[in-house]
Amino acid sequence: MFNTIKWFNIKWSSKSKWILALMLVAELSAAESLDEMLSELTMVQNNSALLQASIAAGEDRSLLCVNCHGKDGNSVRDYIPNLASQNSAYLFKQFELFANGTRKDYVMSKLAKNLSTQDRIDIALFFASKDVKPRKQTVSVDPKGKAIYDSMCIQCHEAEGHGNGIYPRIAGQPYEYLSKTLKKFKSGHEDRKQSPMTAVVKNIPQDQLDAVASFIATMP
Length: 220
Description:
Layout: H1 2-45, H2 48-61, H3 66-69, H4 88-100, H5 106-113, H6 117-128, H7 145-152, H8 154-157, H9 175-187, H10 197-201, H11 206-216
Helix pairs in contact: 1-4, 2-6, 4-5, 4-6, 7-11, 9-11
């Protein structure tokens, strides 16, 4: 009986390693696939003819987005983010996160799954090409906001809040959206727990997060 148990344990251990290896291969394949798609987006972005064609196609496909994000990417509700002037690689990656279930939203999760890679590239490049128009905010700017921004946000989102590559542009986003999103990061919300932002803001008092949100919302 001892030998049987030992044999079973060895077999189970081997099977577990095999399953784990397959899981790791699947994860690597997904990562490579995303990298390949982002490379395709960059290739289109760097070719003026392809870029203009993609933006034109994206404008047509963006009809799916206008009810929430506005026809030019400037949102129609304070709790919805602007997509105008957003970094295209960041936008594209968000489509992937909604499609694979890492991020969850009733509308976006369904929409992203039904968009082809080309659709996602086109929409991302279209909104990235539009000018953001910061809306009048519902709160006054807290004077502590800039100092907090300079101490904890500038490294990734840059001095002007425009981000870089996969880091999003946050300048000019609606205050309500910013405040709500920072609260999700702070609480480790299921929808945001994979983001490095959870570690950044975890121990920041809520009043300081609200202060920095009020500052970011007024950035051009």
